[in-house]
Write a structure and sequence with these properties.
Length: about 400
Amino acid sequence: MFALKAGASLDFGWSWEKPGSESTKFVCGGRIAPMVGLPGERLSTLEEPEMEALTTKGHDVRGDIRDDEEAVYLMDHPDSDEEIPTLDIGAYLSGQPSARESVAVQLRDISKTVGFFYLKGHGIPPDLIDRVFEESERFHALPIATKKAIPYFDTGSFRSGYQPSFKDEYQNTNINIIANAKPNLVARFSINREGGSGGLSMTDEERRARVNIWPENLPGFKETLSHYHARIEKLGRQFLPLWATSLKLPPDYFDKFFATPHLTMSLLYYPPQEQVGERQYGIAPHTDNAMMTFLAQKDIPGLAVRMPSGHWRAVEPVPGTLVVNTGNLIVRWTNNEYLSTKHRVINTNTVDRYSIPVFFGPSGDALIEVLPTCRGPERPALYEPITYLQLRKWYYGPRKA
């Protein structure tokens, strides 16, 4: 893929800027245009040349990408004190008048400027989150042979199971934003949505396909994870009217794309990393690919995000909150209006770090095209229509030199 040119600026965002010039920001707004397809239709799979054509038009959903030594130093040594905003949705979830509109205004501003926020008032009981962390520690304390008996496998591009540290191949894919990163110093156990996430076009065989393999002899493990997984799906769906309102669309606009949503939940384990540098990370600098990510990170820091200045900031744990960020999908939907913010993890602590991200996105067959309020005669679409499954295939596909 070709990265956007941003001169010598350290700006990785979607405010295209050249030294000595004013930034140009795009604002969603324009005529309503008809959909060219609907979720649930069986769409043909793009061949490789067509797939490449979707991602070589000079627009990269990940923003401007730099991996020179100066840029990597900033990633490795977060020194920004810029604010990571807090979004409180308690009033919205309780149905208070005008809360949806007021929260949507804040969500819009956050998504255009930072792309990361602390989420308050989310309604998920703290004791449930604590229990999931307890289960994560129980699982990762199992003998390695027991854990490795659970395969890491793919069902319709959605990956489940156990993957030990250093066994990913993200350095060879479009996930990483820097070249030559070492395999990640993180182990994971992942689950996905039972019944599949392919959408209404799934065949009966696809709906019956095995999605998750659970460890044996861990009483309560499956039940606790499944409960939290379901609560995050509910929370993700509660966000859909907020996203729609923030983009001047009807509140139910996104519902049709989420018939069987993507919902990957991972129990991540990061051992201490003694040295920083040489492109070794817990998770290397990247952007997420779904619509949004809900992260529980307990009390041990390690996450850092790229801020508007181009410097990176450590995301300190804040009790009672989840950390939320937007992903590549929303960049395509909003025609570069909302961000997919770069982030990475290094556990420089002397103790193990556990975190629990849940990636929330539409059904695999959802057709992703620039939203009608984000394009018009003077604001052409920067991206061709593509299914969410095809976007995922690109994300996990081979990295271009």
